[in-house]
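User: Let's play a game. I give you a shape written as tokens, and you guess the letters that built it. Ready? Here's round one.
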């Protein structure tokens, strides 16, 4: 199989292994070449992040406002509530677990000395963003809400085209270069002697997140079963084909046909399922939120950075909004979230690279959690629609 045909996870795994191995014997100047590339890539990310936010969130708000009315509003609110629950559930669980498992066997790094230990690039090119992240968010909401009030759709079409450009940049430039970026990061950490602490962090944190995402699905279906008066465990079992498909595709969009059939098998009205499943594939990313929150917390612990509760809670609320507009490409959610991770939590280049790597390492599991949870929302919406007697049933 050609390297270009390998899935993103395989490329990332190869990049990590090669970075660790090469870092044991390559000369210092060789490491500086890839550190220079990482510096350019990181600066480009800083430049493109506000544009990603505007390009994704603005048309998403415009589309929500011009959709199927009350039923769409209910679906969006439930999806956002599910995403927030995932974030706070992960935060509470990890705050309880991480002090016990990350305090043993891992030597935390001092964030103030990180830059002294890293391999320095040969050169760096500044690429200042056109605006900061908060300005981009405010602008996106202002224009997006304004679009919903306009009679015409000219401006919405412009932002839909802009979204296509941003999605193309993510899918054709950023994601393909991520393995090289991750290789350079692990090469630098290997040369500077930090890599084995990071690997131990990987294994422990990924295990915790895997357990939590199973618990999240059980909770989602228990709540949905209670509201819809259906057997939650039977409904969850019927969604397993969608879960398995998402593990292979790592794409919510590519899994829609299977998710739709599984949802209909749960005795959901086909019209409601056909409305809810494609919509939730775009706006319901509870599994992705879980990964980002958990890995962000682990990174803060690893670098000995104090956790501000109110600041982190604000981060979760913002993350829920950004997830609604995340592009449906592998790794798209983390790329959409990098802006608020850096602005809210103060992540530097190495910390950003670490959380991207952690996220990609379990990307398919997060996607599987997302699409399986869509079935729980469909159960709730079926119950709401039957009471509302909408035109979809």
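Assistant: Ready! My guess for every position:
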């Amino acid at each position: 199989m050609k390297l270009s045909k390998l899935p993103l996870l395989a490329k990332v795994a190869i990049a990590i292994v090669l970075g660790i191995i090469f870092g044991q014997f390559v000369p210092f100047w060789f490491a500086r070449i890839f550190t220079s590339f990482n510096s350019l890539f990181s600066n480009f990310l800083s430049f493109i992040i506000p544009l990603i936010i505007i390009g994704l969130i603005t048309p998403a708000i415009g589309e929500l406002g011009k959709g199927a009315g009350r039923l769409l509003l209910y679906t969006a609110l439930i999806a956002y509530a599910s995403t927030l629950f995932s974030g706070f559930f992960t935060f509470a669980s990890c705050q309880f677990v991480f002090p016990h498992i990350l305090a043993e066997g891992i030597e935390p790094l001092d964030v103030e000395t990180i830059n002294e230990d890293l391999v320095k690039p040969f050169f760096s090119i500044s690429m200042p963003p056109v605006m900061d992240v908060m300005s981009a968010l405010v602008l996106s909401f202002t224009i997006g809400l304004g679009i919903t009030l306009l009679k015409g759709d000219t401006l919405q079409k412009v932002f839909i085209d802009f979204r296509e450009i941003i999605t193309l940049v993510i899918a054709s430039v950023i994601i393909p270069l991520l393995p090289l970026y991750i290789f350079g990061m692990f090469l630098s950490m290997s040369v500077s002697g930090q890599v084995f602490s990071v690997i131990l962090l990987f294994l422990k944190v990924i295990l915790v997140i895997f357990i939590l995402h199973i618990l999240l699905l059980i909770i989602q279906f228990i709540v949905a079963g209670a509201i819809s008066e259906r057997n939650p465990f039977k409904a969850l079992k019927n969604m397993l084909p969608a879960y398995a498909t998402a593990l292979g595709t790592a794409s919510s969009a590519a899994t829609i046909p299977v998710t739709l059939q599984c949802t209909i098998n749960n005795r959901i009205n086909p019209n409601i399922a056909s409305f809810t499943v494609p919509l939730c594939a775009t706006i319901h990313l509870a599994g992705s939120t879980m990964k980002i929150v958990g890995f962000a917390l682990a990174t803060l612990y690893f670098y000995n950075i104090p956790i501000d509760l109110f600041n982190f809670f604000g981060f979760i609320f913002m993350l829920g909004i950004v997830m609604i507009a995340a592009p449906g490409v592998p790794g798209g959610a983390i790329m959409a979230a990098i802006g608020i991770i850096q602005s809210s939590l103060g992540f530097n280049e190495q910390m950003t690279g670490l959380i991207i790597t952690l996220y990609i390492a379990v990307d398919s599991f997060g996607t599987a959690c997302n699409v399986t949870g869509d079935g729980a929302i469909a159960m709730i919406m079926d119950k709401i629609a039957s009471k509302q007697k909408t035109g979809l049933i």
